[in-house]
Fold these 2 entries.
Entry 1:
Amino acid sequence: MTNRLQELLAKVKLLEQELLIELQKKEEEYFYEIQDKKVLFQQEVKENL
């Protein structure tokens, strides 16, 4: 693989990690999680609907 492609791949991996961190923050903020392409809300949220 060329040097440029390696650099781009490294950047993509870093961005993917940053995206996962931000998603986790939102999951905690809004009391949900994503599992198997489904959004699951915590019990507290369900009780307040």
Entry 2:
Amino acid sequence: MQTRSRQRVFKLVAVAIVLVAVELIARVVIAIAPGDPIYSASEILRIQTRGLEAMIADDPSAGTRFDGELGWTVRAGFDSEMEKINAQGLRSLHTYSSSAADGVLRVAAYGDSFVFGSEVDDEAVWSHRIEVAHPDLEILNYGVPGFGLDQAFLRYERERGTLNADVVLIGMTPVTLHRLVNVCSSFFAQSDFSVKPRFEVKSDGTLELIPNPIPTLDAAREYLAAPEHITALGEHDDFYEPLVFENPFYELSGAARLGISVYHRIDRRFLDPDRPIAGWRGTTRYNVDGAPFKILTRLTERWVEEVRASGKQPLVVVFTDYFALSRELQHGRTRYAAYVEFLEARGYPHLDLADAFMAARGDAPIEPWFMPGFHYSPEGNAIAAEAIATRLEQYR
């Protein structure tokens, strides 16, 4: 009897040692693993709290500010050593008249940080370069860092009547596919916090707007008082994971966090039918059967149609990125190629900047065209400016 009791105790001790070892190993892996950090739910909520505090504080030294409709936008009148936002809310060293002068083609450019020109100073941005090299072109830069194409479209709808443009440039970047199905950024990238509106595709194929869930600073203060209520935003966010925010084991166990994180990454890349991206690393491509791609294409259709209905001319510009160019060099096809094929099939005027970069490359490496944060360098902006200016000549 005593022998059996000792065996049971030995087995329990052995199991405990194994569990402790697994837990310790998991925590070490979490600490040293490359890529996005794996935070506990309480750590994510602390990051969220800091983001809400910054949102409410509205620091005038920040280049962006809270916007109840869009989530955030650029701060009109902002002036730093690198970036200047004019009083009209455009990245420019000057202000614009209500209409362009005779003989000047005015272009309103909407999009995210690639349109805005993040990581370089004002004189290096593609839009400024075009205006300097081509006095008969005006580029109204409505870009906002971090925007999805949905937010860019909503800004267009709000401001299209302010300044009279001849051409509307719709700036699409590869990363926007993920942003289109995201409402709260901490569900997608745990080290960040922001909220935004999004569109969903209804059963009849039309788009339905899901408004920004934090439309006022008072609403932000409510989440600041009760951070755990942020889970309510998961209803319309494709990246919300109940196993992270509603699972006590995820909070308590490093092994649980690691296992759930690995599962989610596999699910998002290979299993979820609505995943934005499909394929193995290095051979990834847009998932044309998923909800994100359907939203992207329907949003493009709606935007182009609205521009044409207003008597203006659209131009969709794909601001390619470092990862897309790297993939094209290896496999001869960007991961967003299906989107370009969609534009071609619809007959929408478009420009894929990957073509300009590849034509300029020769045998040189592509790294000099990008900054540490992967936005265009001054050299990359110069290539983009030349390609866009050449394409705009066809609108005269």
